[in-house]
Amino acid sequence: MKKVWSMFMLLAVCLVACTNIDDLEDDVDALKKRVTALETQVRDINSNTEALRELYNEGTFITNIEEKSDSYTLTLSNGKTVNLYMKNDNNLLCPIIGIDSEGYWTVLYNKNETPERLTVNGQPVKANGESGKTPTFNVDSEGYWQVSYDEGKNYEYIYKEGTTDKVSATGDGSAPAEDKNFKSVTVENNELVLVLAGEDAPTIRIPIISDFECSFAAEDLEQIQEFSAGETKEFTMTMRGVKNTMITAPEGWSAKFSKEAGKENVLIVTAPASSAKMMTRATADNSTDIAILATSGKYAMIAKIQVSIKNRTDYKADFDHGKDITIGGITINNQIYSDADIQILDATDADVALDTYFSATMSKPVILFLTGTAHNFTTTGVKSISNDVIIIGRYDDEQVTLRPINCWKSCKGKLLFKNIKIDLSDLNGGSNAGYFINNAGVISKGDFTDICIDNCLIANVLKPIYYDAAQKTYFGIDNISVQDTRIEVNAIKIALINIYKGFNLGDYKTFNFKNNIVYSQTPQEGVQILNWATGNIPLSDGVLSAEIINNTFVNMIGSNIFFRYQKGTSLTISKNIFDVSPEAEFGSYYYSFLESCTPQIDVTDNIVYGLTKNWNYYHTSSLVKEPTSGNNITKHATAPITQYDYVNGIFTLASDVAGYGATIE
What we know:
Elements (H helix, E strand, L loop, with lengths): L1 H13 L6 H35 L6 E6 L3 E6 L4 E5 L10 E4 L5 E4 L7 E2 L1 E2 L2 E2 L11 E4 L5 E4 L7 E2 L24 E6 L3 E6 L6 E5 L5 E3 L2 H4 L3 E3 L4 E5 L1 E3 L3 E5 L5 E4 L8 E5 L18 E8 L2 E11 L5 H6 L4 E3 L2 E3 L8 E6 L5 E2 L12 E6 L4 E4 L3 E3 L3 E5 L6 E5 L3 E3 L2 E6 L1 E4 L13 E3 L8 E7 L2 E5 L4 E3 L10 E5 L2 E4 L5 E6 L9 E5 L2 E9 L2 E5 L11 E6 L2 E6 L5 E3 L2 E7 L2 E3 L8 E6 L6 E3 L4 E3 L5 E4 L22 E5 L4 E4 L12
Parallel strand pairs: 16-23, 26-28, 27-29, 28-31, 29-32, 30-33, 31-34, 32-35, 33-36, 34-37, 35-38, 36-39, 37-40, 38-41, 39-42, 40-43, 41-44, 42-45, 43-46, 44-47, 45-48, 46-49, 47-50, 48-51, 49-52, 50-53, 51-54
Antiparallel strand pairs: 1-2, 2-3, 4-5, 5-6, 7-8, 9-10, 10-11, 12-13, 13-14, 15-18, 17-21, 19-22, 20-21, 22-23, 24-25, 55-56
Helix pairs in contact: 1-2
């Protein structure tokens, strides 16, 4: 205890004036023993007080008891473990805590005195029930006892009854050496018998039933169990001698024992779906407790854990309250989109088609807030986008699934995604299914300005996410942004962003690819992040500024060049991790510019691992040869990823690559 040690230091300094060194050493040793005794005694008193509170609860019994030289360790039917200490240290004036026959806390300072009730604002304190409080004791820096009734947040001094005299913890030795918190603690006929100190104190008898238990693991009891909406967790319980059980759970929650063979003692808990009642904070009442009432003959016990829904962001509520929502650097709010067609759609019970919200003549922007993970949101046939379309997963802790059947044509406006799983399984190269977003319907220059994908999962990529159909009448897009997104690739020789042989390259101004995880379970050759193909003469020079920063690429092999463009102003490929595990029989190239130009290039600070051939800065066909120092890159000595979870797209980075790769949670 810091306060007790401060008292020791103060007294030790005062002793410096002593002239007899032997006396000084004796005094210091005695003081050290006194400080140690005080620390032990405060621990014992608080432990005993907590134990008494638990043992005094009606219906409590003991499932296990361990007797030691000066204490008992008791495991109770509610899963808690408490310690009872039977004896005070010598020469300490310590309060002896008890409970009187009416259930009030009492304190005794000397065996010749009568126990008095502990009070808060002049009122006696119950040991249990709704008004029950458990006192916590402390010793201040001057050696006086203090008591708290709010778990140690605030302390007040203990005064001798009828006086203003503080109770000293280091008295003159008047406290008898054999003072005890209990007159006796014995085990008799499968009962723990506590005879408390004090004339009016009751005797407490608690049954010991060692062959009956229903309990959660200790770590489950110590913290609130947080769930995402709709999430299921399993809890393995200790069950002995249980004949019957009854389970209660908060509204919207499901709790039941597994019926799987060998898992009969596993409790399966499922949080409510988004449409059910949500709770963001658990408190000690039955609205947040999952409780199991177990019975065995005449005995019963209750095992409890507290559950809560994680604090969640409701983007629709934020929008309604005028808050900004940022998607790929673009801000939306209800002032900017005051005239938008705003819809809340739920796929909890069935698939939901979004076809009616797309057309070649959209009169106003569309904002879709989607919820429900049991089914998909779909589109059938080719869809045209001719105004701003913004699609947001409503709650940040659930990611709904959008599964288009055919491509979407970018004609005019913006296309923004946030917190969506975009499943591209059906876009496999069939008719009108060779890409997701198709630049095949731009009305005039500058009409379609942005594609932003933010905090999404793009699953089963088989064909390009964006494709420029390469006609002279089609114009490009000002900004393409992909960030904080997982991209699962299941195809070789594919460009995620395929500008192909676009004519109007001057319309492509910025490309931002940041903090993404791009992965495949097996090494995929020829995967490109962005590609402009050879064999065409554009009508305008490329002015693209591209940033590919802090991404993690797993089993992506740029043998067909990660970034290929005709002519641009800048290219940054930095702080990325490229891991090919196991090693594959390929080389890999970062970039190639097809026209001689002088862009600002930074592609020197990345981590690469795997491949039996070289990692290279630029392809031999590139007309930009920076950096001039050479094109071979040193592989990292050890794997930058320590754990590979291809199913969920989670890759644990090694400690020595901090600052590199994606940090998606």
